[in-house]
Amino acid sequence: MPETHFRACHLCEAICGLAITTEGEQILSIKGDPDDPFSRGHICPKAVALQDIQNDPQRLRQPVRRIGDQWQPIGWDEAFELVAGRLAQIQLEHGRNAVAVYMGNPNVHNYGSLTHGNYFLGQLRTRQRYSATSVDQLPHHLVSLWLYGHMSMIPIPDIDHTDHFLMLGANPLASNGSIMTVPDVGRRIKDLKARGGKLVVIDPRRSETAEVASEHLFIQPGTDVALLLGMLNTLFAEKLERPSPVLDLCVGLDQVREALAEFDAERMAPFCGIEAGAIRRLAREFAAAERAVCYGRMGVSVQRYGTLCQWLIQLINLVTGNLDQPGGSLFPEPAFAVTKGKPGHFNEWQSRVSGLPEFNGELPVAVLAEEIQTPGEGQIRALVTSAGNPVLSTPNGRQLDEALAGLEFMVSVDLYINETTRHADVILPPTSSLEHDHYDIVFNNFAVRNVTRYNQPVLPKPAGSLHDWEIFVGLGQAFSRLTGQEPRPVLAPDQMVDLALRAGPHAERLSLDVLKQHPHGIDLGPLQPSLAKRLQTASGRIECAPQAMLDDLQRVLGELTGGAAKSGELRLIGRRHVRSNNSWMHNYQRLVKGKPRDQLLMHPDDLARHALNDGQQVRLSSRVGAVTVTVQASDEISPGVVSLPHGWGHDRPGVAMDVARAHAGVSVNDLTDERYFDPVTGNAALNGVPVRVEALG
User: Fold this and answer.
1) Residue 595: its pLDDT value, please?
2) Cα(first)–Cα(last) distance of the chain, in Å?
3) Tens of pLDDT along 58-78?
4) Domains of the chain, start order
5) What pLDDT score was predicted for residue 564?
6) Residue closest to 319 by CA, chosen among 244, 394, 387
7) Residue 561 — pLDDT band, cuts 50, 70, 90?
8) Cα distances (Å, whole numbers) of residue 172 to 114, 156, 294, 447, 568
9) Cα separation, 668 vs 583, whole angstroms
10) Strand partners, 67
11) Which parts of 390-447 fold into alpha helices (H)?
12) What's the pLDDT band for 583 if we cut at 50, 70, 90?
């Protein structure tokens, strides 16, 4: 008999509720759950493709070992002993830091990796740890650590109650929100406009979200810092600050006011390409709104001024009285209180070759390839990856591809033989998402409402398979035995969640048993002001003037005249699509079907200047490499800018993803530059990369 299961989708940050109907182990349908109080029945095409993921014949279902160019099945215990033995031997011969770790984005969508990853990885005691954090979001975390005392205390736009939403470098209609868990964002934008509110989008491209905005302004890639500086300068100069309770918690605001005195709108306008009058108007309209919020995401984080941008965004919300206020930016209080954990740390050590700073125990992924390829003490000789494909997702992927081929040993916890894992010696595949339970530890912390739900497995765990957390436990126990340590006791992930719920801010009404009785999830109410009781800085104040930010302002002054592209040079940006989320979703026919979407977008005026035609094959090059791609004329892109989506480039030999290979495209990260980063954090700068476009010939 058919049975309907209720579950949140794990494929992106929106965590939309699903109603999945099965008969036996066959999936009959996947629909939006109208009784989910958060997503309200909304669904996007990615969720429907969950059945494709489940049924994909190329998804690995047992461990495999690479022998030459062939992959051979291997038993779990044998695999654990092999991996533990090789890593222990390499560390014995070359030191702890000879083994590196890379954690990909999907780890935060599978709670077993979060709860148990360190059961094994912590035993390696290596400083060579990397993750997708330093690809796309490190500035958010560092600014929150500095200002509020915890890397996960990131205020979230109260989109359901704001009157004025200023959005920079974000496209939630395609991404479903990012560091803003916001299912059904299209309806929420309509509701905002219906109540007389205004959505203003700043973006080098007229994106899907910009199309429905009240106003869209083009900006030159990588120059949002100039707009934000000009706006904050205007707020100070015209005394548009508004009193609020958080102002009494601030320290250093006078230093900021003084430091920004020379960054007026007239001086900033030529740098960002937005007229001074428009910059001042944006500041005045924002300050005049009863409830306003400024939010910047990928476009402002993955640029050379990413940390400055996120700092300025926080200050704009703060000085206008919109930080920690309804309709402004607020701090969620999730049932699983992640901000009770360690706050994080910064620059306690640096990378071996380039000296870039660590953040919370991780180095910027921009230096991973050079740490593998540069001889000397501490050179990386082995790598552990989990749910990551850095060859396609990190800067200068060709260089990393080459570096991985030279490793002595590599192991990957992954479902596929992809562009990265093809270099592994052993691949350990976990169960699929529908075969295990789940709790959204991370994304409830970024949600626009306080919500919670526990997701039961939809399908039974296949015989002989292991969940991701069980893989980490198996590796950890094997490593402990080899290194003479006593294996630590193990709690299952759901037990850990239950303990966290009972100790969290909603403990009086929640436990795992309670959540199991509410399969659609529980709405815990709108976000509320809470910063005064939750500040974790040593001073107990909002530290508005981190010295690193004041110092970095001088870099802006020094580079103001260097923002224009050289003759013939264009600036490269990425773009999102609702049917795609990084490289691993391209092996499912229902997500790649339809018109190709991996073309290079270019303004018609730029096509004419370069003597190119719409639909022509062109050579797109940067300092690090070149690709051949089809160019498409588009007036949605600003002149001087070209756009290429990320996650493609599936034509490497040995990749066992046939659908993806049939729609290979090119990798934008064969053009992004590992030397082009935010020097404050080392976060990759994937937007604003200088490129050239030429006819093939």
Assistant:
1) 85
2) 62
3) 999 999 999 999 999 999 999
4) 3-55 (3.30.200.210), 64-136+357-525 (3.40.50.740), 137-332+538-553 (3.40.228.10), 563-695 (2.40.40.20)
5) 47
6) 244
7) low
8) 25, 14, 14, 13, 32
9) 11
10) 70
11) 390-393, 397-405
12) confident
Q: In what order do the strands lie in the sheet containing 382-386?
A: 70-73, 64-67, 426-428, 409-413, 382-386, 99-103, 129-131
Instruction: Give the pLDDT confidence score for residue 584 in this predicted structure.
Output: 78
What tokens were used for 220? 């030159």
Q: Tokens 């992809």: give the residue.
A: 418
Distance CA 320, CA 612 (A): 47
The per-residue DSSP string of 636-648 comes to TB-TTEEE--SS-
β-pairing, 346-350 vs 357-359, is antiparallel
Q: pLDDT over 90 for what percent of the chain?
A: 93
- Which residue is listed with tokens 């005064």? 532
C-alpha–C-alpha distance, residues 536 and 145, integer Å: 9
Residue 263 has pLDDT above 50, yes or no: yes
Enter the DSSP assignment of 262: T
Interatomic CA distance for residues 537 and 146, integer angstroms: 8
Cβ pair 41, 186 in contact under 8 A: no
The predicted-structure confidence for 518-556, as pLDDT tens digits, reads as follows 999 999 999 999 999 999 999 999 999 999 999 999 999
For the segment 669-687, what is each residue's pLDDT rounded down to a tens digit? 999 999 999 999 999 999 9
How do 382-386 and 409-413 pair as beta strands? Answer: parallel
Q: Parallel, antiparallel, or unpaired: how do β-strands 99-103 and 129-131 relate?
A: parallel
CA 296 to chain CA centroid, Å, is 13
Nearest by Cα to 154 from 306, 329, 299, 298: 329
Tokens of 578: 């609702």
Q: Which two tokens stand for residue 608?
A: 């004419």
Banded model confidence at residue 565, pLDDT cuts 50, 70, 90: low
Specify the pLDDT at position 580: 84
For residue 540, give every residue at least 6 positions away whose Cβ sits within 8 Å of its Cβ, in sequence order, or none.
none
Report the alpha-carbon distance of residue 686 to residue 135 in Å, rounded. Answer: 8
Closest CA to 116 of 441, 464, 349: 441
